[in-house]
Amino acid sequence: PKGNMAFTGKYEFEADENYDEFVKKIGLPSDKIEMGRNCKIVTEVVQNGNDFTWTQHFPGGRTTTNTFSVGVEADMETMGGRKFKAAVKMEDGKLVADFPNYRHTAEICGGKLVEISTSSGVVYKRTSKKIA
Description:
The protein is mainly beta. The protein is 11% helix and 55% strand. It has one domain: Lipocalin (Beta Barrel), CATH 2.40.128. The protein has helices spanning 19-25, 30-36; strands at 9-17, 42-48, 51-57, 63-69, 73-77, 83-87, 89-91, 94-98, 103-109, 112-119, 122-130. The chain has a nine-stranded antiparallel sheet. The protein has a two-stranded antiparallel ribbon with strand order 5-6. This is FABP6 protein.
């Protein structure tokens, strides 16, 4: 059985795969692409049952926070800063969200936060290690 607070923690970017191909596919502008490359993003997750606060801290002090409850439509923001509505689902212990032009999953795997975004067959994988 999955622990109730399985996602809670602070995670620091460790590695990614297919970053350039993916961000071009979803149409991020090149200045944002440069800014995000090998960016030591710290992801802070607070989970309370089915309620989540998901904050990304970017170097330089910018943060993005998405607050949502599993299965309930919520206001969200993409990595490019676009606002949209989505209902995050829980499937096999993974959080799954359909963003406007990509599908995003997040899971805790061996103590690491593993996030996978898929857009038109391009799979972007980001792994973050737990720091708190």
